[in-house]
Write a structure and sequence with these properties.
Length: 297
């Protein structure tokens, strides 16, 4: 039984790995086709793009590895953030039944277009189409800022996406729609009804939003982007696919992953704009009968 469940976990990991390889293949193929269509470009210009592509893809994979290695370098404040995140997720877990019922009751009042957007935009296929499109735009226009943003998005989504796939299988938490309670766990169960914790849609959508938001200084612009990025996570609660704690932890994973890879890329790209402190400080506020997360821009 253990070997069978381990094999199922391995297959889930393999599917994510194949998606990462597909992204690289898509980028290489797209660049080759588009470069051949831009007749006014010189051979030297096309060769430069090819070198940039190889450079960027190298740092996509190195950025993923960097994010996974960070826990081995954490200090006191980093472990404190992890503790606050675990505490906040645990407190939300205690009220998951109530919050799930309340949010699902609001579904009928939400426009169908918004519900469809939330269910679709967080899927791996649309995620990589979007991130790949951003990167290709930067590569074809030779914009370092857009290229770097694309690299940040691809690396962050791949790192966080792989982590959530493994965590979902290991934890085996039942989804609300399964009819089972929030306390039902069946580790390594291949049935998707037991792949609730954390929310993959919330992770992929908010990873993109957070990476894009970091390119803007205006706090209102950032807040708007983050709000749009949070919709897919909320939509999964509307649909009974996830509990509130699943979504909140997914968003936390997105923030930690993007911040980690963003710091890594600071030393790999020349523009001074990336060396400025653009960190958003997220704090967990705990009080009698309340839980809140605030961000200082």
């Amino acid at each position: 039984m253990f070997k069978r469940k381990s094999l199922q976990l391995g297959l889930s990991t393999l599917r994510i790995s194949r998606q990462i390889i597909f992204v690289v293949f898509f980028l290489v193929l797209g660049v080759s086709n588009l470069a051949s269509q831009v007749k006014q470009d010189s051979i030297d210009s096309q060769e430069k793009r090819w070198k940039l592509l190889k450079y960027d893809m190298k740092h996509v994979f190195k950025g993923i590895g960097y994010s996974y290695s960070r826990p081995f370098h954490w200090q006191g404040s980093d472990w404190s953030k992890l503790g606050y995140t675990a505490l906040g997720t645990g407190m939300l877990y205690l009220i998951d039944d109530q919050t799930s019922e309340f949010i699902q009751r609001q579904q009928e009042g939400v426009p169908k277009g918004m519900r469809d957007y939330g269910s679709t935009i967080g899927s791996p296929t649309y995620n990589y189409m979007f991130t790949g499109g951003v990167y290709l735009t930067g590569l074809l226009t030779k914009s370092e800022k857009i290229r770097r943003t694309g690299v940040l998005m691809i690396a962050s989504a791949s790192a966080a996406g792989l982590l959530q796939q493994i965590t979902k299988s290991v934890v085996g938490r039942a989804r609300p729609m399964s009819g089972k309670g929030k306390d039902t766990f069946d580790p390594f169960n291949s049935n998707r009804d037991f792949h609730s914790f954390p929310s993959g849609h919330a992770i992929l959508a908010f990873t993109n939003a957070y990476a894009i938001g970091k390119q803007f200084k205006n706090p209102w612009v950032r807040a708007g982007i983050y709000t749009v990025g949070a919709v897919p996570g909320v939509s999964r609660i509307w649909e009974g696919q996830h509990w509130l704690s699943d979504v909140v932890l997914g968003i936390a994973i997105s923030i930690f992953t993007v911040e980690s890879i963003d710091r890594y890329l600071n030393n790999k790209y020349k523009s001074d704009v990336y060396r400025k402190d653009k960190l958003v400080n997220w704090n967990l506020n705990l009080g009698l009968g309340q839980v809140g997360i605030t961000g200082n821009f």
